[in-house]
Amino acid sequence: MFILTEFCRTHTHCAVFSQILKTFVGYSLQPLFWASISPLLVIIQSSRARIGEEMSSPHNHRRRRSSAAPLEGEDLLSEILVRLPPLPSSLPRAFLVCERWRGIVSDARFLRRFRLHHRRNPPLLGCFVQGISPIRFEPTLEAPNRVPEARFSFPIDAAHTYVILGCRHGLMLIFLWRRNQLLVWDPVTGDRHHLDVPPGFDNEETRIKGAVLRPAGVAHHFQVVLVGNSDIQLTQAVASVYSSETGLWSNLLSAPLPADDPDVVTRVYHDMCSVMIGNSLHWFLIGNFCGILEFNLDTQSLSVIHAPVDVDVNTCSVTVMRAEGGGLGFLFLSDYCVQVWKRKTDCDGVASWVLGRTVALDNLLSMNSEEGSQSPRILGFAEDNNVVLLWTFIGVFKVHFESLQSKKLLESYRFYRWFHYYPFEAVYTADAGIM
């Protein structure tokens, strides 16, 4: 706040910041906003200082009238507003301030910039929950940022056979089993794109899994990565990539799968969606062995990584996750004990798993494990927020295992343990006449 006060005292833009301060007073993420604009304040200050030095020089007397300080007027205000927290109530609040602000935040170009600016740090709006009833959206934010349940109405009726393959970058990927098609759905805009499954994937013999993503810095185009077992030889994993920019699927890529027991097929585990770490996608493998199928988007290649522990998916739950400090991580939950693993590479280039920490979940979440008849279960991983979703007998929690911070998101019922949860992270602006 000292930086802001000094800036307002010495510069002509104090009215802009004062109005923002009044509008967002008490904002739960206000410190994050000031942290995000502080580099901008430094840039403006240094730019003005540099320009002041240039203007004081006698050699620059002729340029005095034509030179203009950067980020003046609308440009400065736009740069500030685009850094508001990416919560549903941010732009509607700004929209109500005055005519000038209303014009900026309702401009289609600004809205595209706002979404793109926050593409990699969206809030966790909620979860799509698939259980005994039709799929529904369960909001997890508190008012005034809570998204109404009916806002994201699932686009497929119960008569169709479908499988949700996951959510990422504000998109959901759905496999339409009977049609042998994929549906890419944007819950915020309602846009839908149907894709035919490429040759080489047999949904009769093996499970098809996939992932959807938007390339960095791209607002409209998306990619779909489809993985599964070869329809000819089940000892191979295959993958293909679709680009909406070209409208084409790539050639099939393959990687051998361990086959210690020829009678047991290694498949992608259906209860865990893909997890993106860096520029690679990861799926958990079960069958002949427990491992991770990795698809590198840069090299367009498949590889298999052995898991750090043997997993019985009937009694334990797991998820791939981003490790502390970055890189590939692995979370293993057995009863109330959590093991957090990290993949490290030594000086010789040899990669191995290292146990980072062990967490007693009943202590972390302040619950009496003796009161619960069912053990906790991992529901999913919200990769942009780096939090794990956990079902417990006292509620559904999100847990950040680096900081060991947790928050209860939903009340819990016993049968909820077996529901499928799909975390939905996206930049969404609540209706206020600006969408």
UniProtKB/TrEMBL annotation:
It comes from the Eukaryota. Residues 164-426 form the F-box protein AT5G49610-like beta-propeller domain. Coiled coil: none annotated. PANTHER family: F-BOX DOMAIN-CONTAINING PROTEIN (PTHR32133:SF410), OS07G0120400 PROTEIN (PTHR32133). This is F-box protein AT5G49610-like beta-propeller domain-containing protein.
